[in-house]
Amino acid sequence: MKYRNILLVDDDTDETELFGMAIHALNLKINYSVENNALNALKTLQKLKKNPDMIFLDYHMPYLDGREFLKLLREVKGLEKTPVVLYSGHSGDLIKEVAAKFKKVKFMKKQNSLKDLTFSLKSILLPIEIRK
């Protein structure tokens, strides 16, 4: 499995708690960290010695929205190709368009239940042959 270190950027504490429970429910050895501010997340990422394997990014964030964050992230050396999942409660075409404009960016709708979120994360984080 290639996704061992995940960063979640989301300002909603209920969402971050649910995300953590879903990661734990997958019963995989995944380390995840949370940044509740996109601007701080970008500053932290610029200083890290080991980059995350994947970033889950809430599209609607204060200070920097998803599009602005992605644009700046892709300018950081070593993070140009880091996979990002735009993680939003809205499944609007605008967000999907933003995901399509950047390389290695997918879209995932936020889920309201632990079961649904765990299923969605499993489909992103696990190769098809291991999901069964």
TrEMBL record:
InterPro entries xref list: Bact_response_regulator, CheY-like_superfamily, Sig_transdc_resp-reg_receiver
rRNA-binding recorded as keyword: no
Keywords, alphabetical: Phosphoprotein
An example Gene Ontology biological process: phosphorelay signal transduction system
Gene3D superfamilies: 3.40.50.2300
PROSITE patterns reported in the protein's UniProt record: RESPONSE_REGULATORY (PS50110)
UniProt entry tagged with the keyword Iron: no
Modification 4-aspartylphosphate, positions: D58
Domain Response regulatory residue range list: 5-125
A Pfam family the protein falls into: Response_reg
UniProt superkingdom: Bacteria
SUPFAM superfamilies assigned to the protein according to its UniProt record, in alphabetical order: CheY-like
Protein name per its UniProtKB record: Response regulator
Source species: Flavobacterium potami
